[in-house]
Amino acid sequence: MLLECFAVAPPGIEETTARELRALDVDRITADSGGVSFQGTLAQLGDANLRLRTASRVLVRVARFRARTFFELERHAGKVEWARWMVSGTRPEFDVTSRKSKLYHEKGIAQRLAAAIEPGPDDAPTQLFVVRVVRDEFTLSIDSSGELLHRRGYRLESAKAPMRETLGAAMLLAAGWRGQAPLLDPMCGSGTLPIEAALIARRIAPGLRRGFAFERWPAFDAAAWRDVRGRAEAEVLPRSPVRITGSDRDAGAVAAALENAARAGVADDVEFREAALSAATADAGPGLLVSNPPYGVRVGEERGLRDLYATLGKLVTQRLIGWSVALLTANPRLDAATGLDWREVFRTSNGGIPVRLIVHPPIFGDPANGLQIGATP
Question: Which of 89, 90, 219, 273 has its C-alpha lying 20 to 30 A from 350's C-alpha?
């Protein structure tokens, strides 16, 4: 039986997530605001959780109904097949959002839904349900992921302002990098971008080192899940086919990056160095420089960062001949300080700050079909 699923993704990242899902051969893929809907079997749902690099969680639609009073809500809640999704003794949790609806009290909605289920004890495993109410139309979904999917299990050490792993992967995939050329992040912080690049280059599914909520569902098929994981494990390459380098002037950040890479199982695939941006080095092109530099959004920061961005531009034009660049930035004036021409790929947010992924050279062909490293206008 096909399940109606929804892969949650940050605004601006949906098309990248949709391309990932197309590679998984699921049905009826539709990118929408906040994620991508698709249909798949329980095994394909597991595969999506295991392999998606850019989604934050995967939901399964449980019920849709219309309710304008608590009486109507209670009646519909009583018809939901809760036992299909929760084993006895599980404790439900509800994430409720209501907009433009008669029932606007979100805590009250959660209480009415919880009343339709025999709850487990306070120390029982929990199961999250996501409830969205828009103009009195309820959509009830169950979370199949458990912990958010950006929690790969490797990042315990963080430098300042760490980037989520899902956003780092989205930068790489949206820029078209698939491990086909060397990669350098000269401001790598705790190593998210180089580590995500190593996982991509070695074809390591990001969820191989963690568990998921659907493994506790009554319909969970352990044998089928072993097959899904086994296929993913069989695809892993023994080493990265390209050189991946990260550098940072902060010794503490480099130490954290080394620890994170070791936990991710890619310590031998990434070279981390302590070095200022001006001292960053790389092999002869073509290759990809990718980074998440400081944004300069606070008052007084922009002037101090102009030199940093100018140095980045000189690094590309003087020492990284034939290399392409992908940056996550928030300030067009700082982008201009590089002296490079840019093309915007997507817009999203990072830590609540509006940002955009920009690439150089400005003409790549279609990043969705693979970045043409070293292409010229």
Answer: 273
